[in-house]
């Protein structure tokens, strides 16, 4: 058996990769928005969004299923090769179907003619996402390779952008660079994956065994897509483009922070799936408890900090004209806590335990609830109503997912250490609120206020945890000391 990789290292590497994925558009968009024409940006954004639906079809929920099932075979070379070949073959069939549907839509819908060239450029992502087989790296918990190549390709892409995108008509070049940045290295991934698994196309696939759970997970992905997209769509229908622009700004910031936190937790999924598949329940509970503690000690203070500094974040990332989104961001920050706990219950417990049908049920119910709430709240509260509907929906799905796996998580949640860690985090957050309020009164400069609020909040939060003798805080402190000693 291969040596287990550190969850902490994996979390850092996957978090770093997510930060790069988030910062690439933040670095490039200000430049591109000045160089390209408004119509060029419009064609680019529409084409990118349009292709995302076909990428979803090609994906078919395979990645999530492959990690869950493949984790228990990773120490058996013969079984993992057979399993991976079957899953890859299913993925390729879904990819062919996605391309057929794409080409049919381009022929049938005349309104798409202006976008054909850009859509075809973006369509390369469909094939190369499948070839990337990142689920293999997740199964083997190998994030080093994909993180390093991601850094290299992002740097090359930024250089290409500034060299090649020079005039308003260069939106196709920008699209090609975006594709190169996102999936350009996936062919290398496919070749490098041979170090773990020998993949080949096969017709000897256990359709009956694989298809049902894959389609259930795929249906959940569709429900989530509808759930996520419905907010903006309904807001646009009931209000106007201005309201959508204000809400989109707060959501983008919220998703950036949430994406970084979830990336740090994603690395635990293959370990949990492996332990559950092997019936190592005690070890599974230990890792799951670490996930809960990590979320408690990091997720809760980040959400509170974002809520307290919403105005400063909006002014720094956007501008004064987006200040109406401050209240929307403050409201939706609460959704982060509920969303991350719901995510743990879903991907770290229910899916490894093969209860994906419950995930689908809970997601569909929540999506319907979210749509109804949007129609009720938006006429009275506009974009703030959309944020509130998201908070209520995320809270609902957290409760439903938690109830669906209560028999599994009960012994973990009611452990003394888990409850103490969450209580310590809540008390520490009081310190964050106090620090942010004092900095708000003490500084007139936006930059100084933000810097001191963040730095002093971290210090205050850490000090409170240490005073409360929080084990996780002491563990992080010891690790930091070891790193300092090794560098000295």
Which structural class matches the secondary elements?
mainly alpha
Q: Can you count the helices?
A: 21
| Percentage of residues assigned to helices | over 70%
The major β-sheet equals: none
Tell me the overall shape: globular
Taking Cα atoms only, what radius of gyration do you get, to the nearest Å? 23 Å
Approximately how much beta-strand content do the residues carry? under 5%
The string of secondary-structure elements, in order, is HHHHHHHHHHHHHHHHHHHHH
Separation of the first and last Cα atoms: 35 Å
Task: Outline the low-pLDDT stretches.
Answer: none
Average per-residue pLDDT, rounded, comes to 83
The total strand number stands at 0
Essential attributes:
488 residues; mainly alpha
Entry summary:
The chain is mainly α. Helix content is 84%, strand content 0%.
